[in-house]
Design goal:
- This protein is of the alpha/beta class.
- The protein contains 20 helices and 11 strands.
- Helix 11 crosses helix 18.
- Pfam families: GRAS.
- InterPro entries: TF_GRAS.
């Protein structure tokens, strides 16, 4: 935990006092600029952590404490379902309800207190200018300056070269460099540098701009939140209008359709399950974080056409309240929809409910029967399980050992290829910036920058994950991704061995990518499939037994 998290009120007294002179702009105004004809509730305006100053946070998120819907915790969708040769179909009602699963630029102006004339070869003049800068930012209040200088937890940058370098980066619009340096200042507890760069970043970022500008708006949000509060307080601090469950479902469906990441994951997992369970008469699929259950539509339809008749299918759905909010109801809704589909396909079907978090799952909750062939699905879920760095319970490895005790025919894993679990703050910030730059660029290739739906998708489906990664620590940081190499080590320690993916699945996914931008890349390496944008791997899929 970084020093800046020590006391979210007392330790940041100077931070808020010293900002009295800044005119902070609420980035939610960008939405109003997008379409003046649309009217927004007063409740949609950002309301931030109250302090006894005029300082305002740079709120861009519509956030709440009820549902931090993750990019990975419940995106389950399927493309439009059609009538199959086997007679399988979805009712008009289910066709609307099934579509996906939720696991849940303007001109730049600068108000910098440092002018270009400050950059001089005269070292004495430079020191004077920097002293003037410090006075401008901190004000003339001696109590404030004294409290800053006396604080054991706050530091002031004394490197003139660093200030000059940053001023040059700002002038040439090097947003990535300024963001990283601001994060470094936060990491070093250099409040003077951090506050100055935050004030400079405000006019450089925009939810309507280029991918790096849009991403920068949310990365800046995370940095401010990290300084202003810790843990779950961020969601209480960013009290904006919460989208309804139907709106959230709609945003996730858009994300599912415009990017192939989730289709890739579900297709590869279903292919491995179908291959491992071929010839079995009774199969039991245990799906951790089942969400809407839409991943299983195509599998049920495929099993209906099996030579000799379909098997008896039982699905146990594990899920918590996050996805319940998105689907506007409990797991029985998922069971009813899948049951209607299976009936139309003439597939014997049974659904078991496991309404709990993965941390709460025990052997008796899974109800495994001796005559069933078991398959377990971990699709974009395991990274939410705390490991040994968070809790002595280490639910991440405990869950893998529990699943191994079931002797499953196959276990499928789909995860984001990112390293944010145990990384210190600054490397974690840089990794998040790099990862989501690729995500935002891929979205930019499909939806126009002034598209209101794109803004909602990025704001409600992606931004909260980023803020959680940047602003939170300990148990309150729930977005804890690991690269496949680390997952491989965990599965191996739990006693699993790799299960080879079917070449047919690989070919099917290549066909899928043909309908998307040519910058998507599919790679098979060490028994796993990787989907990425250009040279950056974003999602990995593999199977174990």
């Amino acid at each position: 935990m970084q020093a800046s998290h020590g006391n979210s009120v007392g330790s940041h007294k100077l931070y808020f006092q010293s900002k009295k002179g800044f005119q902070s702009r609420d980035l939610s105004q960008d939405y109003q600029n997008l379409d003046r004809r649309q009217s927004f509730d007063d409740s949609s305006q950002a309301t931030c952590i109250p302090h006894n100053t005029s300082y305002e946070l740079y709120c861009t998120l519509n956030s709440s404490s009820t549902a931090s819907v993750s990019m990975c915790s419940a995106y389950r969708s399927s493309s439009t379902t059609k009538l199959t040769p086997n007679g399988c179909s979805l009712s008009p009602e289910d066709a609307k309800l099934f579509p996906l699963d939720i696991h849940h630029s303007p001109d730049n102006t600068y108000g910098s207190p440092v002018s270009v004339s400050c950059i001089t070869e005269d070292s004495n003049d430079l020191k004077d200018k920097l002293r003037d800068l410090e006075t401008m930012m901190l004000g003339s209040n001696l109590d404030i300056v004294d409290s800053f200088n006396c604080s054991e937890t706050k530091q002031v940058s004394t490197e003139p070269e660093r200030w000059i370098e940053m001023r040059e980066a700002i002038l040439r619009q090097d947003l990535k460099k300024v963001l990283i340096t601001c994060a470094q200042a936060v990491s070093d507890n250099d409040m003077l540098m951090a506050e100055w760069l935050m004030s400079e970043l405000k006019p450089m970022v925009s939810v309507l701009g280029e991918p790096i500008q849009r991403l920068g708006a949310y990365m800046l949000e995370g940095l401010v939140a990290r300084l202003a509060s810790s843990g779950s307080a961020i969601y209480k601090a960013l009290r904006c209008k919460e989208p309804s469950s139907s709106e959230l479902l709609s945003y996730m469906h858009i994300l599912y359709e415009i990017c192939p990441y989730f289709k890739f994951g579900y297709m590869s997992a279903n292919g491995a399950i179908a291959d491992a369970l071929k010839g079995e008469n009774r199969i039991h699929i245990i799906d951790f974080q089942i969400a809407q259950g839409s991943q299983w539509i195509s599998l049920i339809q495929a099993l209906a056409g099996r030579p000799g008749g379909p098997p008896h299918v039982r699905i146990t759905g594990i899920d918590d309240s996050t996805s319940a909010y998105a689907r506007n109801g409990g797991l029985q809704i998922v069971g009813q929809r899948l049951s209607r589909l299976a009936e139309s396909c003439k597939v014997p079907f049974e659904f078991s409910v496991g309404a709990m978090s993965g941390c709460e799952v025990k052997l008796e909750n899974l109800g495994v029967r001796p005559d069933e062939a078991v398959a377990v699905n971990f699709a974009l879920m395991l990274h939410h399980m705390p490991d040994e760095s968070v809790s002595i319970d280490n639910h991440r490895d405990r869950l893998l050992r529990l699943v191994k005790s079931l002797s499953p025919r196959v276990v499928t894993l789909v995860e984001q290829e990112s390293n944010t679990n145990t990384a210190p703050f600054l490397p974690r910030f840089i990794e998040t910036l790099d990862y989501y730059t690729a995500i935002f660029e891929s979205i930019d290739a499909t939806l126009p920058r002034d598209n209101k739906e794109r803004i909602n998708v990025e704001q409600h489906c992606l931004a909260r994950d980023m803020v959680n990664i940047i602003a939170c620590e300990g148990a309150e940081r729930v977005e804890r991704h690991e690269v496949l190499g680390k997952w491989r080590s965990r599965f191996t320690m739990a006693g699993f061995t790799p299960y080879p993916l079917s070449p047919f699945v690989n070919a099917t996914i290549k066909t899928l990518l043909g309908s998307y931008c040519e910058n998507y890349r599919l790679e098979e390496r060490d028994g796993a499939l990787y989907l990425g944008w250009m040279n950056r791997a974003l999602v990995a899929s593999c199977a174990w037994k």
